[in-house]
Amino acid sequence: MNATAAPEVSIVIPVYNEEAILRDSVLELVRGLDAEGRDFELWLAENGSRDRTRELAAELAALDPRVKWFSCPAPNYGAALRMAIEQAAGRFVICEEIDLCDLDFHRRALALLRAGTADLVVGSKAMAGAHDRRPLGRRAATRAYNGLLRVTLGYRGTDTHGLKAFRRAALLPVVARCIVGHDVFASELVIRAQREGVPITEIPVELEEKRAPSIHLARRVPRVLKNLARLMAAIHLGRGAKER
């Protein structure tokens, strides 16, 4: 690839306290992408880690110029994901999770995007054909949350959080209109895209955690509900300022 040319694909991964799996996961992902001849860049969006995640991200970037990273001062998944999307240069963007790195999702999603079947592909953990092997409590929380999105915001899909791939030019204007951060940013992006008529396709994914969640589920619930209320006010009443 010409050093000045933009890559076809940008892979963006928010990372928080991931020193245990970061190095091996990134190196394995890069090997897989190289084996497929993928023209890519990989953004590690560190946010507020208290372990060696920043140091490891810097080391990985020094090993391979296609690996890039930046650091947000506070733990904020949504802010980190937004910044990575805004900095990405690829025609297509894949939002990954460091404990997944699902190359099969990449292949299927990129085929749909290249064919023009969709501008946004959502990897669903809950639709027919998906295999979600997380603990029962986590699976139940996903379904309850998605049900809440359907009732409060009219979402017509089965999942919003996790793996996504999209045509960057089509989604950047949607990203600019998103107002919330943390976990709800990922949902807001998909819901706003749907409401604005962006062609969306869901595909089933297989999910099995490599490690326990970096933030305990019970501690996430109050913040998720608060940001969901802000999103409801913004969409239904036109209220709310962007969170950065």
Automatic annotation (TrEMBL):
All residue ranges annotated as the Glycosyltransferase 2-like domain in the record: 10-170
Record protein name field: Glycosyltransferase family 2 protein
Organism: Nannocystis bainbridge
Lineage of source species: Bacteria, Pseudomonadati, Myxococcota, Polyangia, Nannocystales
